[in-house]
Amino acid sequence: MFLIQKPFMYDSNHEAAPEGVISQEVSQDIEKTDEGFLLTVTADEAFLQSPDTVYPVTIDPWIDVFQGEDTFVASGTNYNYHNTDYLFAGNHSAIGKTRSLLKFNLPTVPNGVVTGASLGLYQVGTGNTSQIDLHKLTSSFNATTVNWATQPSYLSTPLDSNKQSAEAYQYFKVTDAVKGWYDNPATNFGVMAKYPDSVEGTAARKSFHSSEWVNPDGSPFGKPKLYIEFRPTELLGLTDYWAYTPDVFQGEGTAVVNVINGNMVYDLALIDVAGLTEAFDLGLTYNSRSNYNTHFGLGWMFNSYESLAANSDQSIIEYRTGGGARYHFAKQQHDDGMTYSSPEGVSMN
Fold this sequence. Notes:
Layout: E1 3-4, E2 8-10, E3 22-23, E4 26-33, E5 36-43, H1 45-49, E6 58-60, E7 63-64, E8 69-74, E9 86-92, E10 96-103, E11 112-124, E12 132-136, E13 160-162, E14 169-173, H2 175-183, E15 191-194, E16 206-209, E17 225-232, E18 254-257, E19 264-272, E20 281-287, E21 293-294, E22 297-298, E23 300-302, E24 307-310, E25 316-320, E26 326-334, E27 337-341
Antiparallel strand pairs: 1-7, 2-3, 2-6, 4-5, 8-10, 9-10, 9-16, 10-15, 11-14, 11-16, 11-17, 12-13, 12-15, 18-19, 19-20, 20-23, 21-22, 24-25, 25-26, 26-27
């Protein structure tokens, strides 16, 4: 399932605007044919023939496949700008005060809780040190119809602020907001990026790539991104970064208690065959707070049960160790490429 958004066009007059002069006067029509469907895009002839238009002109009917929603609104117009490949915040000489709106669908995380979250916007151009405030929205918006008059409400206190001037990602901490959205998904209305009220109508705008922007190398680098860090909910098994009591059994096997949640972990070796690998080191592990039920009994795991599981869109991979510990690897767009991030306290490749 996908959405074909309303098309627009822009010319190559980069002196008038960094992105060129934009026209919303583009229409499209879909007609069913014997071979499928025919999409016809019609551009405004007056714009194309205008002596002020600088060629080449790009006519762009976007096809979005389940990515974040974003747009911006402007005080001097009643336009909707959802199909542009840039976002604005601050004063624009032609269209007035501008604010950007963004919303992300959150990935499903099995047995995980959020430990940190950041939202990244890629700034276009350098030298502008104006402050951007990121505010949590308190009402919904429709990215395809919203304008200045219908913009959503927001909390007056920003989630975070940034004054970066380089052409690179600007990051905003949104941990508390994302935690709240996971606790109550109905409150995930998104965020607004804007200048402080005192300078919003005077300070020159900043520009950012939108989710509609297409990187020439085909990667998503440069698009708005939400970076989320997780840790397991159950805190089962043994790790190098949790604290445990000394062995409470002092007998066969080892039994320790996680001082964070009181989970007792009992490790019992069954077969230990010397070799270059641990492939023949078989054993059982019991976690007192685990609901995992096997034919060995409730809470028991055989170390050969080590497994990987992915959520529906493979944005989260869960690695379950033979001792019951769970680690979540999140697919993230890092500044150096798309990779899976190691979970809190763990370094794995």
